[in-house]
Amino acid sequence: RLNWSGLIEAYRPYLPVTDSTPVVTLLEGNTPLIPVPMIAKIIGKGVRVLVKFDGLNPTGSFKDRGMTLAISKAKEAGAKAVICASTGNTSASAAAYARRGGMRAFVLIPDGYVALGKLAQALLYGAEVLAIKGNFDQALNIVREMAESYPVTLVNSVNPYRLEGQKTGAFEVVDNLGDAPDWLCIPVGNAGNITAYWMGFCQYHQQGKCNRLPRMMGFQASGASPLVTGQVFTHPETVATAIRIGNPASWEKALAAQQASQGQFNSVTDAEILEAYRLLASQEGIFCEPASAASVAGLLKVKDQVPAGATIVCVLTGNGLKDPDTAINHSNNQFKPGIEPTTAAVAQAMGL
Ligand code: F0G
């Protein structure tokens, strides 16, 4: 859309803002819903598959949808500093919006488990980055306590404004398609985004903006799949570090969304995530981060259950550029090094 002014302006009547809310925006939202015909072909049965590429937001992930609202509301309340725990994307987004809003940003990250691009962003945006010798779940417990005892506003998805902002992803999907899809496939970590999408679909449905509601299909990495097994993972592990989470904060809400929508939680292995990650890039030209590819990996895993002719949306939550190490280490493709700088040498290297 031309003249896009950010999602708070676009969806103002649906959001908890007033004329006196100072809007902190980087013109997030309005991300493309891209058809992925090769994925649809693998599934067959005349299905239509599209990806909501939220990796095209200003800081490269869906977190910007929640952060524009959380930071605007924090500013409205007079906050001088915000804090979050993060596997990387929340920290990058919080840093960008907080700094733009004139606030300090403190971010706690699990030392050694944040993708390079995300760390680079948080640092350059000007966050105060604290790497803890622990995982995301431990970091989240700490920042929750910090926000109770110190003058810092918590901007993890336990902040209700985060989910209010993120529900606009569902609005955009409906505005694009003219109705809700049959299935919404989404990666699940701390379980905020699946909760937010469900809120968005329900609100739009109540307003008569869509005739149906989608089945919410949540996918977790098998090494970090508490919603699938019903058990907390004390040592979550996955190549998809964004969703390396063992005790999701929005566990109950996500479960309620799954049940109300007759959806499912399923897990995908790291190998399946990486396969979908390579497939999206090499067959569809879409470079997302590994956690995001869990939505497509999951869809492919349960493809036998897909109804004929269904419309399916997979949410691609983050940009592939966030995690260059995984791309290079897990590509099937290699570059040819050390070629002499002559036309003849290049032609030979090309096999011509
Ligand atoms: N995909 C990406 C790229 C993420 O960064 C996250 C979460 C998720 C999916 C899962 O979303 O937590 O709402 O279920 N990242 C958080 C972070 C935890 O700190 O950046 P969720």
List the helices and strands and how they pair.
Blueprint (H helix, E strand, L loop, with lengths): L6 H4 L22 E3 L1 H7 L4 E6 L9 H14 L4 E5 L3 H12 L3 E7 L5 H10 L2 E5 L3 H14 L3 E2 L5 H7 L1 H10 L5 E5 L4 H15 L8 E7 L4 H4 L21 H10 L3 E5 L1 H15 L5 H12 L9 E6 L7 H6 L13 H7 L3
Parallel strand pairs: 2-10, 3-4, 3-6, 4-5, 7-8, 7-10, 8-9
Antiparallel strand pairs: 1-2
Helix pairs in contact: 3-4, 3-7, 4-5, 7-9, 8-9, 9-11, 12-13
Bound molecules: ligand F0G.
The site of ligand F0G has 22 residues, from helix 4, helix 9 and helix 13.
List its traits.
six-stranded mixed β-sheet; four-stranded parallel β-sheet; 2 domains; 352 residues; alpha/beta; 14% strand; Rossmann fold; single chain; 10 strands; binds ligand F0G
Polypeptide structure, described:
The protein is α/β, with parallel strands linked by helices and 352 residues long. It has two domains: 7-60 and 162-322, Rossmann fold, CATH 3.40.50; 63-160, Rossmann fold, CATH 3.40.50. It is 42% helix and 14% strand. The protein is built from 15 helices and ten strands. The protein has a six-stranded mixed sheet with strand order 1-2-10-7-8-9, sandwiched between helices. α4 (89-100) runs parallel beside α5 and α12 (270-284) packs across α13 (290-301). The radius of gyration is 20 Å and the shape is globular. Bound molecules: ligand F0G.
